[in-house]
């Protein structure tokens, strides 16, 4: 990906000051790296050229440069510029201003969104002492704000490219591609860290995690995704600072969870999250169950969650889609099983006990990560269907097959079986049933009917007699 890389890194190291900040960026000319227009999104190039044409500076930054240098196909393209969000917005009719905490512009091309942000200044300094840039003349508290815990609540103070690089999270995310001469600018020695497969936070780790605790999650995400190690000083404060995640809005953590566990390296990332004591702040109930060692004949929580994540990883590897509700249904199933048992032991019948359990688990979870209703409803359906799939007699199997969540519930069932839950061949039965011709389907149903194999079953079933209207009127309940 890079040629003459070691020499470049040696030169770069010489440019560092004692604070580990480069005096000037290391510039890698186009002949020394393999990033060409062919690797870039044509839409991102359009955005860069339009901004440059209007007289602004504009660079590609972050994940797209990092991933390309590592040899991974970039997931999306982020642009950074010295134009303000309003100026960017006025240049693109297909754009919209988004965010309050971090204002930026989304430029939309069909399904692709190019995120355009404005160079940020470092706001660790008191705003009254902030360096004077044209835009900063009008600096007001509405542009920058911190919580009492030091967490950045708003970060909308514009700055220069050097300042922008210093306030990015990791060294390998502070690489800028200049489309004018196709050079890459490395402000924080990110290339050397890529070479050493290291994740290194820019600046003082404690200060940077305090400003934004989500950076701890991002560090783990990149460790999982890239297979890199956390540089020791970057790793050191995480366990003791993990609790700061309690101050992050649940909606933001929900988005992070999807990126952490739903992007192909779920198993490794889950293990790292637990190792660094972060998982507890995302899924407190699940974490408590895993730590307690609780298991039952029909569920081994750790095996089940790992199996679910592994299946999700494999699906992603195969280019198949995965649904966030499925991931969440997996992660919360051990809690649902535990609560269900508790409600049943209090005398509730199975189905109401399950509904109560689901409600309780979801209510507890949304204090940590939000779960939009469009996800919680299918999660409940998947859980509910686990209790309905064993009951296949009569017309039930055909009705279940038509259920909009049948496929997800069936996949869920297979994961339960794969993780050691003994369900008497239920997964294989449904597999056969789905693909069998109609006459064989009837055969399968009749074999699965418990009343056939146990002649007493029918007799034992208490028959519910419908009350006649006359009887209803006489009943003392009415
Ligand atoms: P990917 O998109 O592949 O998940 P990414 O690094 O591009 O990875 P984004 O969330 O798209 O991640 O962010 C784009 C860039 O913005 C990052 O590379 C980083 O430079 C900067 N950034 C994102 N989040 C933070 C943060 N919490 N603190 C500081 N800088 C951040
Ligand atoms: Mg990105």
TrEMBL record:
Ranges of Basic residues composition bias in the record: 458-470
Active site: 76, 78, 169
EC number(s) given by UniProt: 2.7.7.19
Gene name of the record: pcnB
Database matches in Gene3D superfamilies: Beta Polymerase, domain 2, cca-adding enzyme, domain 2
Residues in Poly A polymerase head domain copies: 58-200
NCBIfam families for this protein: pcnB
Listed name of the protein: Poly(A) polymerase I
Keyword Ribosomal protein: no
The entry's keywords: ATP-binding, mRNA processing, Nucleotide-binding, RNA-binding, Transcription, Transferase
GO biological process, one term: mRNA processing
Organism: Marinomonas balearica
């Amino acid at each position: 990906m890079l040629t003459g890389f070691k020499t470049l890194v040696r030169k770069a190291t010489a440019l560092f000051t004692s604070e580990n900040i480069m005096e000037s960026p290391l510039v890698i000319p186009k002949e020394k790296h393999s990033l060409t227009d062919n690797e870039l999104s044509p839409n991102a190039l359009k955005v860069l050229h339009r901004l440059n044409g209007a007289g602004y500076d504009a660079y590609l930054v972050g994940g797209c440069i990092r991933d390309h240098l590592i040899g991974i196909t970039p997931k999306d393209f982020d642009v950074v510029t010295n134009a303000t969000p309003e100026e960017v917005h006025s240049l693109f009719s297909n754009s919209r201003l988004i965010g309050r905490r971090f204002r930026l512009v989304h430029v939309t091309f069909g399904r692709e969104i190019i995120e355009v942000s404005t160079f940020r200044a470092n706001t660790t300094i008191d705003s009254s002492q902030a360096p004077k840039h044209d835009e900063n003349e009008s600096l007001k508290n509405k542009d920058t704000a911190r919580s009492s815990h030091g967490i950045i609540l708003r970060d909308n103070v514009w700055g220069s490219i050097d300042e922008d690089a210093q306030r990015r999270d990791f060294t390998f995310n502070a690489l800028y591609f200049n489309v004018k001469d196709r050079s890459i600018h490395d402000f924080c020695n990110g290339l050397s860290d890529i070479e050493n497969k290291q994740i290194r936070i820019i600046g003082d780790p404690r200060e940077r995690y305090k400003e934004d605790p989500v950076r701890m999650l991002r560090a783990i995400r990149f460790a999982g995704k890239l297979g890199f190690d956390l540089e020791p000083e970057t790793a050191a404060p995480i366990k003791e600072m993990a609790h700061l995640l309690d101050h992050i809005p649940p909606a933001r953590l929900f988005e992070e969870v999807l990126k952490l566990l739903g992007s192909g390296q779920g198993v490794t990332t889950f293990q790292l999250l637990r190792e660094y004591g972060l998982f507890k702040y995302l899924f407190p109930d699940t974490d408590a169950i895993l730590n307690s060692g609780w298991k039952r004949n029909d569920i081994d929580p750790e095996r089940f969650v790992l199996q679910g994540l592994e299946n999700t990883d494999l699906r992603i590897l195969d280019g198949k889609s995965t649904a966030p509700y499925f991931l969440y249904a997996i992660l919360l199933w051990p809690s649902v099983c535990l609560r269900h048992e508790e409600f049943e032991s209090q005398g509730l019948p199975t189905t109401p006990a399950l509904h109560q359990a689901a409600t309780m688990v979801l209510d507890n979870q949304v204090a940590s990560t939000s779960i939009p209703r469009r996800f919680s409803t299918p999660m409940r359906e998947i859980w509910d269907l686990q209790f309905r799939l064993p009951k296949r007699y009569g017309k039930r199997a055909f009705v279940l097959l038509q259920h909009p969540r049948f496929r997800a519930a069936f996949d869920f069932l297979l994961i339960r079986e794969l993780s050691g839950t003994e369900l008497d061949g239920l997964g294989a039965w449904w597999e056969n049933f789905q693909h069998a011709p109609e006459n064989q389907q009837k055969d399968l149903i009749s074999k699965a009917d418990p009343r056939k194999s146990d002649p007493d079953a029918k007799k034992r079933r208490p028959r519910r007699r419908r009350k006649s209207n006359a009887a209803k009127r006489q009943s003392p309940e009415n």
